[in-house]
Known about the structure:
Elements: H1 2-22, H2 53-65, H3 73-87, E1 96-97, E2 116-117, H4 123-132, H5 134-149, H6 155-185, H7 191-218, H8 221-232, H9 235-243, H10 249-266, H11 276-288, H12 293-320, E3 332-334, H13 340-346, H14 349-355, E4 356-358, H15 399-414, H16 435-459, H17 462-473, H18 479-487, H19 489-492, H20 501-515, E5 527-531, H21 536-547, H22 554-572, H23 580-583, E6 584-588, H24 600-629, H25 633-636, H26 656-703, H27 709-726, H28 732-750, H29 752-764, H30 768-789
Antiparallel strand pairs: 1-2, 3-4, 5-6
Helix pairs in contact: 4-7, 5-6, 5-7, 6-7, 6-12, 11-12, 12-15, 12-16, 15-16, 18-20, 21-22, 21-28, 24-26, 24-27, 24-28, 26-27, 26-28, 26-30, 28-30
Keywords: Cytoplasm, Cytoskeleton, Microtubule
Main location: cytoplasm
Subcellular location: Cytoplasm, Cytoskeleton, Microtubule organizing center
Amino acid sequence: MHRERAKEKVRVYNDVYNTFRSNPVHDPGRDEPSFIAEASFVKAPLNSRVVSSSVVTHGKGKAKQESLDRLPLELQEALILEDLLFVLMGIEGSYITFPHDYSPEDEDPLQGLRFIVSPTLDPSLRDLAERILPLATYYTAITSFIEARSHLDFGLVNHALCAAMRDMLKDYQTLLAQLEFAFNMSPQFTLQKLWFYVHPTLHTLSLLYLLSTELASADDPVGSDSASNSSNSDGEDDARNEALGLGGAKLKAVLSEINKTSQLGDGSSGIAVKGGEVLAILHERMQNMSGDPAAKELYGALLQAAGRPYVDMVQVWIRTGRLVDPYEELCIKESKFIDRGTLEVDYTDEYWERRYTLRDGSTLGGTSKRHQAGIPLPRSPGGRLPGGACVPPTLERWKHKMLLAGKYLNVIRECGIEASNNMTQDDEPVFLDDERLYKVVDDAYTHANRTLLRLLLRDQQLIPRLRSLKRYFFLSQSSFLTHFLDLSHSELRKSARSASLVKLQSLLDLALNTDTQGEDAMFREDVKVTVAGSGLYEWLLNVVNVSGVIGGDDAGVAESIGQNQEETKKEKDDKKQMLAIDALTLDYNVNFPLSLVISRKTILRYQLIFRFLLHLKHVEQSLATMWIEHKTPAWRRPTRPSTDKPATPEPGTKDWHAEFENWRKRVFLLRARMLAFVQQILAFATFEVLEPNWRKLEGKLEAGKVDTVDQLLRDHVDFLDTCLKECMLTSSKLLRAYSRLIVTCSTFALYTAPFTKSATQALSGDTPEAMAKRWNTLGKFEANFNHWYALP
């Protein structure tokens, strides 16, 4: 049966050949081999196309000269079928050719090859052939897309996508092989049957073509090449360029500005479509075409295949804390320039906040920092972010947990502890849109949280550390401070620049070694003396005016710190030098990983509260010293003998003795009022604010009510912010009034010696002018104190 069909096929093509020979258009003088005359055509018809370029070009010209309208419809259909089998593979046929203006250099291969059918073909056959021709365009475009995206620079997600598309093209190629076999072996194989078999594939390849076109149109290969070239530069290249004079900061800045301008000019982002952006496009197309079951199934299969490398990277990150992302496809990035060397200088603020971050710049609080350096611009205003900065929609809600799960494990690894997550893994693969992936992320986040929390609370003794901070900064046992102030009285009376930190530190160590024992002596070697660059109340007022509240925005507070210190240093040249007692504060050394909880920002809050309490303690001590001074004879000795009776003053004159007694009583009364005010503020801050809030935090930690590290960090910062707020250090109005009152009290205490001297001179002999001056000075203190004290 097959042999008879083969003979029939040979007879048909011999008739066609004889028709060509008898055609007057044919030039017998041109000795050109024809595929019809080849005996091997029936066995391997594709071999006839594997010839030299000159022969192919010559044959094409011949085909253009021949007309099909003189041939029977059966022969036309057979020739077009033979051409279509080649064209569907991307090979030009004899009657289905490229357009006349086709140029390989000008055409974009990612748009696919375009073919036209000979106009001499029967209209019914030509219409049917033109319906099939888009398959050739789709196939060539998809093939070019796969070849282009298989380059290393496009990352693992693109590689997996191309592999899945290549598998689908294998099915298409298998179909073509089967159609070729049917064409060779069955005389009843017609163009209508070919259309019937390829029609379902046409829809599939059209979906792949639309996907490849969208990915190619959003891509920026020029920017991608420049980005990859810049990322591949290493330290040796930078050093060599610097030595050759090509790596200066100014030159780099100019080149960066040129690149930035060129990118903004052509609207490109400079990052190839890869990683999460590819998955986001796939997910978006799958959602938009959810009404088409075939399209949804196709894009779903591609999403699963392309998402496998992404899921693998996520699982490695959340299970081991290692970021294996060689092509920057994951939504998490690592700043490798921040290493353990920087931790000694700035603890772990840099490490914790900027070593591992999300590429889109978002934070757990919901804020975005896309304006900062390193955060790429979106493809279009309000559009999706490019490359790995685009988070797949299925993982948008889980990105912060993914970040923190790996970050916590990485912190544990930095401590020299193996941090692998040994949770049982299923044998079945986990896909990007699988509910099991969300459970894996949540379980890994919970495991990392508990592991790090156990490390902090048990191994690193977090609670004793916090108790020591309370003891030294909140002055819960302040005998050491009183001893220290007595020992360093003379040194603290100097200006802040003149005071010796070495001497102050030695005196603090002496006070701590003398007055602390047992548990109170824990971690005392970590307490250090330092001098602030600005006054407490000026600094607080500036920060409150900038950020609204202390700790409302850590970045704003940190920025305002530097600005305030610079402004303060400039003002110091024109103003009186600040005393060491006004700039004195404590610092606290914390090792990693405790510095995650007791960070520089939290220590700043501790220092603010300590300076607030220190000023109160110092003013209280000064007023107490003034009370001791008021027990001297100058203040207690009567102005007239006890045997004398009060003389009646002459009209128009005042009784000097009664007036002097009233003046001394008024001084006593003002000192008592100031001391009561300071002691009430101190008692309120310690017993009504600090102690209750500390008990709440300590109770949570000891009762195990803190389940995650995030909650621990949040509770610690909230505790300090609450203390600052309830101590009235976050209201500009209260701060201004409070600072004036404290300055008035401390200045009044400084007038102890002048007042005593004036009282002694008055007992020896006084004049009305001296008494008036005495009352004038006291009146200024009373008026100032009463004014600020009466403010609501």
